[in-house]
Specification:
The chain is mostly helical. The chain is built from ten helices and no strands.
Length: 249
């Protein structure tokens, strides 16, 4: 718990709040704008509105946000003699990596919460009647599982690549590939790429994606299992690297 707190404190000077607020806000603005401009075709109220937001958020924005958060989380370790301090720490490599993934995931959950708040406020501003559908809110909560998997792998990339923008660029490429393959009707990619699983999960029950899966107990269990496997393998790869790496000047 102390390691996690220390990693969260390292975000203080990273201006992370801009990512946590602007990334979901941009996704909501684009989704809401697309919905407002096509109300005649998007006639299912909250379902259509939130599906538009999740379409864009899942296509690119959430994975990009996680990548930026991960790069910010490792930026301190790549400065000065902090890498040496990390390698000579009395804490186990597993604990150090787990704390870093935990910090990234908590920041991601905050960003995700901001998305839900912005989306609800935007829907009310557009005059949508009633309350947001429960299923789409459940999808938002379920998406935190593959988000953790993406956080684990982006943490690995940001640990290995000292350049801040490099891991973010890889995340963008991964998101574009995932979107292209999913749009082409090959959902099997979610078993091989964490960003694809994240995108596919955010699109569950969507009225904007023709091949979107329904939110069922089976799909939720599948997301849980695959996310756990991705997270564990990402954590293990990072731990192995940290144990075998040497001092980098």
């Amino acid at each position: 718990m102390e390691l996690l707190r220390n990693d969260l404190l390292k975000f203080r000077r990273s201006h992370l709040w801009t990512v946590i607020t602007l990334v979901p806000l941009i996704a909501v603005v684009i989704g809401a704008g697309n919905y407002a401009g096509n109300r005649e075709q998007l006639s299912e109220g909250w379902d259509s509105y939130l599906s538009q937001i999740m379409l864009f958020y899942g296509m690119l924005f959430m994975a990009a946000g996680i990548a930026i958060i991960a790069s910010a989380a490792w930026r301190v370790e790549h400065r000065g003699h902090n890498w040496l301090c990390l390698l000579t720490s009395t804490q186990s490599a597993g604990s150090l990596i787990a704390a870093k993934i935990g910090a990234i995931t908590l920041a991601t959950a905050t960003m995700h919460t901001a998305l839900v708040i912005f989306a609800v406020v935007g829907g009310k501003s557009l005059g949508l009647p009633g309350a947001p559908p429960r299923d789409l809110l459940l999808v938002a909560a379920l998406a935190l599982l593959p988000a953790t998997a993406v956080a684990a792998w982006q943490s690995l990339l940001s640990m290995v690549i000292r350049n801040f923008a490099g891991p973010v660029a890889i995340a963008l490429i991964g998101s574009i590939i995932s979107f292209g393959v999913l749009a082409a009707g090959a959902p099997v990619i979610r078993f091989t790429l964490p960003p694809a699983l994240l995108t596919d999960t955010l699109w569950l029950g969507s009225t904007s994606v023709a091949d979107a899966h329904a939110l069922t107990f089976g799909t939720a269990a599948q997301v849980l299992f695959i996310s756990a496997a991705f997270t564990f393998v990402g954590w293990l790869a990072a731990v192995t690297y940290l144990r075998k790496t040497d001092v980098r000047l």
